[in-house]
Every structure is written in C-alpha cells, then in structure tokens.
Amino acid sequence: MTDLRKNWRSVVEGIGSCLPEKRVTNSDLEKTVDTTDEWIVQRTGIRERRIAGPGETTSTLATRAAMEALANAGRVAADVDLIVLATSTPDYTFPSTATQVQAALGITHGAAFDVQAVCSGFVYAMTIADKFLASGSHKCALVIGAETFSRLLDWSDRTTCVLFGDGAGAVVLVAQESEGRVSDRGVLTSHLRSDGRHREKLFVDGGPSTTGTVGHLRMSGKEVFRHAVGMVTDVMRDAFAATGTTADDLDWFVPHQANERIIDASAEKLGIAPAKIVKTVQMHGNTSAASIPLALSVACADGRIKRGDLVMLEAMGGGFTWGSVMVRW
Q1: If I label 79, which of 73, 92, 102, 220 is the partner at 20 to 30 A Cα–Cα?
Q2: What is the mean pLDDT of the chain?
C-alpha cells in the first residue's frame, strides 16, 4: 500500500557489473577492418571493448550484474519489487528482458519492464525507478543497463563497428525517508529530453514492423558530435539550477562513455575539472545503456566514488534522447 505520509528518496545501496569474456583490441580490429589503433584512439579514446560470445545474451549479462549489485547491497532477490532494465538489444521482441532477469533471479512478485532510450537508457531507467520509489509504491528496485550491441553492428562499416561493445551494469535503489536536503543521500533531481526529428543521424535500419529484420546500426558521427555537447550540458545546467549547486560542488562527473572528445568538451563547457571525470571508454567502448553503470562500478570499486559524494550522470542517445541525473551517493 502506498504510504503518502513520508518523504521518500531513492538511495543507491549497491552496484554491480558484468562484461563478456572476449576482449577485442584495436589491433585485433586492424586485422579485419580498414582501420588503425591510432585512428580509433585519436578520434574516440577507445582502445578495446568486450564482445558477447555464444550463450552470452543481454539477459545473462544483466542477471550477473544484478546478482553482484544485490550482493554489494547486502540484499537478496526477494527484497526486489521493481526491475527497470534499459536496453536497445533485448533477448526477444517480447517478453521484456527485465522479466527474463526477474525469472533468473527467482523473483515472482513486483513489476519488471524494459526501457528503450538507447544510450540514454540508464538515465531514463534511474529516473523512472526513482519516481516509483519516491511515490511510496515500491521499496527496492534493480536498475539495469545491459547491451549486446555487437549484434547490431555491420562489421564491414569501419566508422561504427570499432565504436561499440557489450556489457551490463546494475544498481540497487531503495526507498529511504529523507528530509529533502541536498546533503541527504539519494537521487536529487533528474531531467529528460527527446527530439525525434534527429532519427536519421543515429538509428538501426530494421525492426519488426518495418523490415521484419534486426537491422544494423547507422550513424552520422559528425552530426551526433555537433549536437551532443550542447544537449547534454543543457540538462546538466538544469540539474545545477534545481539543486542550487555548481560544477565546483560536484565530486564526480560520470558521463555516457561514447567518445572521449565529447566527454572532455562537455566537462570543459561546464567548468568541470578533468580530475573529477570518470572515464572507462578506453576499455569498454560505447556500451550504450550499460556505459554509465559500468563506469560507476569501476569508480566505486577503485575507491573514487564514496558514500556522500555528489555525482552527476548524463547521456545522449539515438532518437535523439538525452538526460541527466544528480545523485548524492
């Protein structure tokens, strides 16, 4: 039953990740595609990525990330009453990948569903889960970003196949009472945007109701870059305005890991110090909805992100979709 008397805030209680075993370096790609390690690193910062193998699917990666997040939170699967899974590469057209994770974890109650916002998916999923928890209707959520983008790639297109990788990351969000202060732990604010006029700049040329095929990823890289910095900095400014904070107050900036040049340009535009940026694009490539939770997992594991830190998340994806979430860790 919804408790309308309390002021709930969504607090991150645990985090987990999962990467496929197969590691593919830029040097490996040089053997099959007309490209070079120097060309890839100079334009993107990417040095390697993980590629899902036989038997590894979006749901299997997501399940392993979720199990690690639950263990990290000191929770059991039975505690979870909500799963929001962001992906553009579901196991099936239906049922949702979230329900497959739910079944794999042995959960038979609550709600589970997918969110499709491409690379912004995790930001969208965090925002949606936060609304459920803050309303008092649910108490414990798994928020997951999981992708097997390698299965959407045209491996003869050197402009796209070198950019993407596979993986999954998850956080456990729990509803906790809050006084509503910026200093209190939890999701402080979120801001989502979309503009469907930009479809041709980043899309997959297939789908059940158009071609009846999965299709391949197509991208106009220069156009995406041109729009990305302005869009993501706008929603980050919205977050600062909503909380009365500035770039100086941030402890960590954890952006979508698509391109090192976009990350650096966005941070510079907002005056975020380079030392505050978490980057994992060099070792994961662009893992779409999985990129932010994978980066968060790395930064938590190595001790950079600590309890009480102010963390800004942002992403932009095909559609276009974009958004930001500010969270007190």
Answers
A1: 92
A2: 97
